[in-house]
Amino acid sequence: MPSDNSLPVNKVLFVCLGNICRSPMAEAVFAHIVEKKGLKTQFEIDSAGTASYHVGDTPDRRSAETCRKNGVPVNHRARAVKTADFTYYDYILCMDEENLRDLKDMAPKGYTATVKMFGTYDPKGDRIIKDPYYGGQSGFDRNFQQVTRCSDAFLESLGYE
Questions:
Q1: Which sites are catalytic (predicted)?
Q2: Please, what sign has the CA dihedral across residues 117, 122, 127, 128?
Q3: Measuring CA to CA, which residue among 32, 107, 36 is closest to residue 70?
């Protein structure tokens, strides 16, 4: 699909539990790839958490450092998923099955967003983007590689090269 400003905007929300590790990383990586491909005007991108533990916090230091060391800028403050998100966003992409269950429980009747796991786009078939919070740096590095693969594949599924 050409980079044409007349195309409709795709609104994408990435979701994990607390919105400090996985979903802000996915947001930053996806936004970076979209910008590199000249598609910034075709997307509105954000992230949120199913829980409100960290509302207002910046991303986990390890998540932000992993992005930065890979040349991806991060600028986000944690927020919780809102009822309005289910009709405002076209895609709500979460990181694991628990997030998916929570989102489906939170979703209002008649919601219009496509709600699914971001990992369903992983060409390696790794559907779960595991929470790295209680582990070491390798979990954050693994997440970065996975959300990069998923971002490319998600864009392809929308018809962008």
A1: 16, 22, 131
A2: negative
A3: 32
Please give the domain boundaries of the chain with CATH numbers for all domains. 10-157 (3.40.50.2300)
Residue 152 CA, distance from chain mean position = 12
Residue for token digits 């598609």?
Answer: 39
CA–CA dist 96, 91 (Å, integer): 15
Rounded CA-CA distance 118/160 in Å is 17
Question: Do 55 and 47 meet the contact criterion of CB atoms below 8 Å apart?
Answer: no
Active site positions, annotated: 16, 22, 131
Predicted TM-score (pTM) of the model is: 0.95
Residue 161: band (very low, low, confident or very high) from pLDDT cuts 50, 70, 90: confident
Tens digit of each residue's pLDDT (9 = 90 or more) over 21-65: 999 999 999 999 999 999 999 999 999 999 999 999 999 999 999
Q: How far apart are CA 117 and CA 24, in angstroms?
A: 15
Are residues 69 and 140 in contact, defined by beta-carbon separation less than 8 angstroms? Answer: no
Phi then psi for 117, rounded to 5 degrees? -80, 135
